[in-house]
Amino acid sequence: KMSWLWFYLPLHLLMAACLCHSIKAPTSSSQQSFKSDLFNFYHSLILADGKETTIHLLKDIPKRYYFVLEEGRALAPFTVTVTPCDVPIEWSILAHKASASFLGKAAQGDHNTQEVSKSQKATSTVSTIFNYKGNSVETYMGMSSHSALYMLEFLSTERDTHITVYLTTDTTSGHLYPELPLDPRIDVIGIGHTTVTLTWKHSPSVLQHRENIQYCLLVNEKHNYKSLCAAETAIRSSGMKLPPTLALSLSPYLLEPQQVMILSNGEMSIINKVSSGEVRQICMGTKNTYTVPNLSPSTQYYFDVFVVNLLTNASAAYTGTFARTLEEPEPKVMELKDGKVIQVVLDGKKQKFYSLQYQARHKKVQFTFQLCRGQVRVHITKNGKTVASENILGLRYLSLKGKLLDTYLVQLRSTEESNSSVKVQVSSHFNKPLFPLLPESLKIKSFSKLRTCNSVTIAWLGTQEQSKYCVYKKRIEEDQVWMELRGTDMCSGPESRHKSEKVLCKYFYDINLQRAVTTETIKGLDAGTLYLFDVYLIGPSGIPVRYHSKVVKTRKKC
């Protein structure tokens, strides 16, 4: 069995000697097991002085770190700061101290192992000098002696996690962590429908080292974070990578696809798109008042401010706060005028109804809806009773019967998170439709066998009504196909296209719908190249209807 005499060897010799012994691994964090496990350095680590250490913890498995003072450092102050990066943890500091008489025996070279062993209980003590359980950043400050060996034990009982630990015995060379003011609260001084204004007291570190310190703000809809480490862990667990720190992660080259960076007036922002909403990070230099823009009305947000040391990446967290933005005023009901076409853009994020009202001038009325983008649901009531409720697909006509001066309320909303758009018209003149007569299908067909290296042949259906058809082409890359097809505005006309993209315009119709088909061969194309083809149908009133875009690739070799 190893003698307590080993305790008094210099640290570097102690470590080397302990590595040569095979002693049973620690099984408990109690004071009694601490005595028997004290020298199990091969199953634990020496905690570095003056350096922040990241420690990974496995659930229900304690991890131990040791530290002692260098020789000649009697009664020196030391601090230990532990930052949980996820779930609450338990951690404690245990100290083994030997009496002066026992120290004297060791110094005189008394190697009587039996005598030393008998006097251990009388000449040495083991005590727990600090214990904590939680997920807050906690700092212990104490006085260390060369006749004491310290053990730090960490335990996570919820799940695997990681923490950071900072030990220092040098209190004269400044602070690794930026200092917080005596009052570290964040004050909410203004709330609007889409903005919240915050202010906080300056960190003493900002006043002393302005060029190396900055404030960073974290905004989210879930909860406050007690450390920057915890915030970054939460964002990563939502399914995305996050650069190591707020202060040094604001390079566009480090951004992930789920991140958007915004640079404005010297401020740097990163918006992280995660499953639970968006987490916004803003670093604003040394300003201690900030108005957070572009928030959603009637939504509760949580705000955390971190003061960050740009040289060390270390940070300290102010006490987080929260605020709820004001409710958006109820939208006014817009009057629909007979025969007039309006286009409505619907905010998918708010998921609110857009209301239109119409008072009938005849017993019969016809509502026309043309879906431009996204997905839209329409709900129509007549004098307070529901008469129609459905999703809009393409061009939809709804003919309703009632009485003169009946009041119709049309409510529209987007059924997806992105913005949607729809054109709406109401008319009592059924014989004067503004929207063109549509064919059975708005699909464009291409003929694979007729493709060459420099030409493509396409076909589309027409109607029994004389109409104008315009064909446009656009060269695209492979990675642009999805965005081009998804971002198509079905209500936009040829006026939205560049003149160089126009291929031709022509008129045609056929009384026999079986023969109302036309083809067109587009020449002068490049070999092995993707092209996006669009056809616009323009009726007598001039309102365009866009066919579904078609992507075709010319042959590479002919």
UniProtKB/TrEMBL annotation:
Any one biological process term the GO annotation gives: nervous system development
Which Gene Ontology MF annotations are present? heparin binding
Organism classification, top ranks?
Eukaryota, Metazoa, Chordata, Craniata, Vertebrata
Where the record annotates domain Fibronectin type-III, the positions are 178-315, 436-544
Q: What is this protein called?
A: Protein NDNF
Cellular component aspect of the GO annotation: extracellular region
Give the signal peptide as a residue range, or say none if absent. Answer: 1-20
The cellular location(s) given in this protein's UniProt record come to: Secreted
Residue ranges crossing the lipid bilayer per the database entry: none
- UniProt entry keywords in alphabetical sequence: Glycoprotein, Neurogenesis, Repeat, Secreted, Signal
Q: Give a Pfam family name.
A: NDNF
What does this protein's UniProt record list under function? Secretory protein that plays a role in various cellular processes. Acts as a chemorepellent acting on gonadotropin-releasing hormone (GnRH) expressing neurons regulating their migration to the hypothalamus. Also promotes neuron migration, growth and survival as well as neurite outgrowth and is involved in the development of the olfactory system. May also act through the regulation of growth factors activity and downstream signaling. Also regulates extracellular matrix assembly and cell adhesiveness.
